[in-house]
Amino acid sequence: MAKARRAKARPSRVVVPVLAVAVVAAGVVGWQLRPDPQPARPTAASTPVVAGPTPSRSATPTADPAAAAALEGCRALVAAGDAVVAAARTGVGHWAEHVQAQTDADEQRVSVAEMDGIFARTRLAGPADLERWDDAREAHDDADGACAAVDGAAPAQTSALQRCADRDDAQRELVRAAGPAMGAWRDHLQDMMRSRMEDVPDAEQVWLDAWRAAPPAIEAFEEAERAYDPPRC
């Protein structure tokens, strides 16, 4: 009877390993057939923080075409004015040097030969000074532009137009101050030319009168130039 019970119990040892293999296999198959996990929600660190609503493009002031055209014309006018100012500085500078040479010679700070050398150089530069002055003033007068505020302009355009208008005003003030000195320089050069052609009976007296009258006009220009500090445009 003992042998018979041992013979019947032997198959159970085989079944247990087989069942274990089956459970493992089922687990592997179940893992392969499991649906993909849901994507993880972003953490607070990875989520971009947006402070307030995004401003729309319509909130930015747009440039006004009419104001843009006005600003372009105003800048062209200012550029022409800069050329007049430059011509005035050169011309009045030569005239001042010419007059100062006579003063220095009279006070014996320079010799007559040195004075004559300065006269020759400045007189040679004089016609070019006047031509540059005349051409620059004509171009400025012909400039098709005006520095005035324009309705509907963006704030930046309004600010730029105002700076250009201030610069234009400063230029005109300096040019007005240069006018008498440049006129005296022109008259003197013409008198010197006529004296050489013997059209002026008392050339020396004419020159001395021009020399005596010159300093106030030159000083007025130099004073205006020292105060000349226009804004950039």
What would the keywords be for this entry?
single chain; about 230 residues; mainly alpha; 6 helices
What does this structure look like?
The protein is mainly α and 233 residues long. The chain has one domain. The chain is 73% helix and 0% strand. It has 6 helices and no strands. The radius of gyration is 47 Å and the shape is elongated.
Q: Concise description?
A:
The chain is mainly α and 233 residues long. It contains 6 helices and no strands.
What is the strand and helix layout of this fold?
Blueprint: H1 2-9, H2 11-33, H3 65-106, H4 112-142, H5 155-196, H6 203-226
Helix pairs in contact: 3-4, 3-5, 3-6, 4-5, 5-6
Biased composition (Low complexity): 51-63
Region (Disordered): 33-63
What is the CA-based Rg, rounded? 47 Å
Query: For the residues shown, what is the average pLDDT?
Result: 79
- Global geometry: elongated
Q: Proportion of β residues?
A: under 5%
Oligomer: single chain
Question: Would you count the extended β strands for me?
Answer: 0
Largest sheet, described in full? none
Q: How many separate structural domains?
A: 1
Low-confidence stretches: 1-60
